[in-house]
Amino acid sequence: MGWWRGARFGMFIHWGLYAVPAGEWEGKTSYAEWIMTEAHIPVQEYEKLRARFNPVKFDAKAWVRMAKDAGMKYIVITTKHHDGFCLFDSAYTDYDVMSTPFGRDVMKELSEAAREEGIRIGWYHSIMDWHHPDYLPRRDWEMRSAEGADLTRYVAHLMNQVREVLTKYGEVGVLWCDGEWEETWTHEMGLDLYRFCREVSPKTIINNRVDKGREGMEGLTREGGFAGDFATPEQQVPAAGLPGTDWESCITMNDHWGYNAADKKFKSTRDLVRMLVDTASKGGNLLLNIGPMANGEFPPESVERLGGIGDWMKANGESIYGTQAGPIARPSWGRCTMRRLGDGSTRLYLHVFEWPEDGVLRVEGLRNQSVRSFPLSARWRALSVACDGDDLTITLPQQAPDEHDSVFVLEVKGPVEPPAPAKPARVTSVP
User: Fold this and answer.
1) Is the model's pTM score more than 0.85?
2) Which of 41, 132, 164, 225 stands the most exposed, by the fewest C-beta atoms within 10 Å?
3) Whole-angstrom Cα distance, residue 127 to residue 377?
4) Strands (E), 185-230
5) Cis peptide bond upstream of 300, omega within 30
């Protein structure tokens, strides 16, 4: 888990056949990666999208460079989403990218490009499968009979494909499971899959959606011996973090995971930068989602925001990577991340969202003796630090150095403890 805890920032990619209709079906434009089941598209009709999947502008190296330039340290992409279509060359089905006009193994190209750039690669692989004839349950609206379906055969198929994605493409950093909530998937199946992955790829970390223990969108794992290496809050950053637990918030740039041409509700660069900072300040990772278009390009809005985040990260990445939850919980002026230094002192990164009217930043309840303070973007510039009771105050420059988040360093003597855990860790690996 060491590299993952230090990375703090990754790219999620939801891509597949659902990119072809771009969120629209029979005049309704609210769909994305769930379009098959939400629009009640029969399997035979949905399969026809294969003939239209030809992302001629897909460039694995360009995708990886955009992630790297944005400051992301790892990528997790859908090898197979709930619709059952695989973006990799699978020996266990012809319902994969090799049966499309594109005919290239996306996972192979992306894993090679990521390795060249020093980016960890991870796979999202759905437990659920709306296409496979042995997967149960059927959708309520489906006309397909379940007669002859054998879930045991499907689980064997799932294991075979997981073995493929964990062994064909070099070292895999993360296996990101999903779709475990259906009643047919059991706790015992989750334990079996977790142990199988551990055997096949011991260094791969696995999220808690491999098992049945996740508590809804909050992503924390219930007590009781459920498998998983980290929790998975979805579309939210926990208000107080999840002290004592490894966790990663997965969040979309707009309102959909897969590509929806009509969805222009993109979060601003400022909001995304502050979301990343908020997550790191509470000891978590941010997995920020991109839904590529059917031609293989990222939406221009996503490209623009990745560039803006990257500009901020180039100057301020030190305040994110390898940091711990800050000891100051949600200060009025912004957020705080922390790093312990080799000499026993502590470096606090003060992320100022709201500029104080009097130009003085008050760090409340910090009794450590200060060593020095400076803007992270201008280390040569010493700032005045004073003691005011139990608080330290820093006289800031006249203007904020950054429009999204101005970061100031405060080094103090001795350790500064992060907030005490509010609850015990409940995401545990299973031997």
Assistant:
1) yes
2) 225
3) 45
4) 205-206
5) no
Tell me what pLDDT residue 418 has: 64
Give the chain's domains with CATH numbers.
2-319 (3.20.20.80), 328-412 (2.60.40.1180)
Q: What is the pLDDT of residues 216-273, one digit of tens each?
A: 899 999 888 899 999 999 999 999 999 999 999 999 999 999 999 999 999 999 999 9
Start-to-end CA distance of the chain, whole Å, equals 15
- Which residues, including other chains, have CB under 8 Å from residue 115's CB and lie 6 or more apart? 121, 170
Whether the CB-CB separation of 215 and 237 falls below 8 Å is answered with no
Q: Classify the C-alpha dihedral 403-311-118-256 as positive or negative.
A: positive
Q: Where are the alpha helices (DSSP H) in 300-355?
A: 300-316
Q: Six-digit token pair at 202?
A: 């011991």
430 phi, psi to nearest 5 deg: -100, 130
Q: Which segments within 21-106 are labelled E, that is strand? A: 74-80
- Report the candidate in 211, 210, 218, 220 with the shortest Cα–Cα distance to residue 174: 210
Higher pLDDT, 83 or 369: 83
Task: Find the DSSP H helices in 201-325.
Answer: 269-281, 300-316
Measured between alpha carbons, how far is 188 from 31 in angstroms, rounded to an integer? 33
| Distance, CA of 250 to CA of 237 (rounded, Å) | 9
Residue partners of 93: CB distance under 8 A and separation at least 6: 84, 86, 132, 157, 161
Residue with the bigger pLDDT between 93 and 328: it is 93
Q: 50-86 burial, b if ≥16 CB within 10 A, otherwise e?
A: beebbbeebebeebbebbbbbbbbbbbbbbbbbbbbb
